[in-house]
Design goal:
The chain has 119 residues and is mainly alpha-helical. Helices cover 64% and strands 0% of the residues. The protein has a domain of 74 residues. The radius of gyration is 31 Å and the shape is elongated.
Length: 119
């Protein structure tokens, strides 16, 4: 650098000749290309994650129902109230989990790639 204005001199730059070789400089590798994007893989991942999360939510609700039944007398709830609360929570949750897991496993059976793999 020159002391005058802080700019670099031309001798401090490295010249790159792009016409001689297409090989990368030592220490630099080529960028690896990945396989082509397949949206079905991401869809399968999201379906499985959704199905597992819903099953975990159902297990949590069932555990909560057991805790509610056990502690109902301490809280001051009548058995009829506990039954109503459990029905209101578990009935739609069971239907939701059943539908989601049905779609998840149903989609796996209709995927043509999986049919070829099973043969």
């Amino acid at each position: 650098m020159t002391a005058d204005d802080g700019r670099l001199e031309r001798s401090q730059f490295t010249e790159i000749d792009e016409t001689t070789s297409a090989a990368p400089t030592a220490g630099l590798g080529y960028v690896e290309t990945s396989r082509p994007y397949n949206p079905q893989e991401r869809l399968d991942f999201v379906r499985s994650r959704l199905a597992f999360c819903l099953v975990a939510l159902l297990m949590l609700a069932i555990l909560g129902a057991f805790v509610l039944v056990i502690t109902a007398s301490a809280v001051g709830l009548r058995p009829e109230d506990v039954r109503l609360i459990v029905e209101v929570i578990l009935t739609p949750l069971v239907a939701l989990v059943s539908a989601a897991t049905g779609f998840y496993f149903g989609a796996q059976l209709t995927d043509p790639r999986r049919k070829r793999d099973r043969r």
